[in-house]
Amino acid sequence: MAIAAAAGIPGLVAGGDFEAALDLSGGRIEFPGLPGMLGWCFGALVGDRLVGVVYACTPVDFVLSHRGEQRAWLARSVVEIEIVAVEEGFRGSGAGTALLRHVERFLGERGVEVFVAKVDASDMPVMRWYRHRGYRVADAGESCLLVTASGATSIDAGPAHARRWRLAIKAPGKAVVRGLRGLRLEPISPA
Questions:
Q1: DSSP 158
Q2: Which of 128, 150, 170, 187 is the S-S candidate for 135 at Cβ 3.0 to 4.6 Å?
């Protein structure tokens, strides 16, 4: 919990509701009143020592802005990487990369098709870190088109006028390409 607290999670205190939910669920958190929307917490251990955490969840506000089958597809298929935190002495050791790969594999096996993260536009090392792990970082204010069986929608990093956040997106099995109107996902053609 100290690693997550150091990452600045608002309201996180030892022994609090968040920690209790993690202890009871083994890292899977159900959001009351939001069926199908979940959060997951993963940890990286070196021996018995927790050296890193990732918290990923359904992008609730984005999903709730849709209806019907499109909402259901988005809830099960899109996950936002909210927090990646690695203890300072273990940064650069590969712990964060291994943890992110585990998250992508674990959630991918459960139907997640699109991983997104909102990155501070002024934090070049974090944007570079995501790029080196296969994420495409959108330009400021740029969104990514997602096509569902119920139609197309776009996900972004927040209001375009704010320009503080940029979207990092990865869709295993698909290419994230830049077009005239922003990013979009396309099937990868066989070589």
A1: S
A2: 170
Q: What is the pTM of this model?
A: 0.85
- CB of 152 closer than 8 Å to CB of 146: yes
Residue 6 pLDDT > 60: no
- Alpha-carbon dihedral 23, 27, 33, 37, rounded to 10 degrees: 180
Q: How many CB atoms lie within 10 A of CB 132?
A: 9
* Topology classification of domain 2-187: Aminopeptidase (3.40.630)
CA 56 to chain centre: 5
Are 138 and 119 in contact, with CB atoms under 8 Å apart?
no
Closest C-alpha among 164, 161, 160 to residue 182: 160
The domain limits of the chain are 2-187
Residue 137 confidence (pLDDT) above 90: yes
Q: What angle do CA 48, 53, 59 make, to 5 degrees?
A: 150
